[in-house]
Amino acid sequence: MSGIFNRYGGGGGAGPPGPAGPSTDLLIRTYVPGVSVYDAVYQTGTGAVDKASAVSVATTPVLGIVVGVDTPLLGQCTVQKDGDIMGFSGLTAGNIYMLSKTPGQLIWEGDTGNPAYPTARGNVIQAVAIAMSSSTISVAIQDQEEL
Asked: Domain-by-domain residue ranges, the chain?
């Protein structure tokens, strides 16, 4: 789908995430099965992370982007809350990417015709990152707004 990116199609990652910069905030969390590298995640009531979705406030706010699964231990993941993540493709430098209705994915804020773009009452708008190049995002999570 045009404008959506994660590790699958539509500009998905071409490999493991790149190294984090010095100001990067990393978290270690348990995760719900199905969470993958490059997924946007939120923290559940149990403290684990699961794929975030703009469908409702129940699956937000975005905590960060997963940069490692089963690290440092099996059943844990590493979540990056800010800073640069490399390994994506198909991004447009300067574009802002926000949470999509598709769980775990982000969408370009200008892709309003995409069915994954949040437009319905109860959906959530939350900017998550800006593309620094065609392959790198800078995570800069903003406050969410419910439609």
From this structure: 4-146
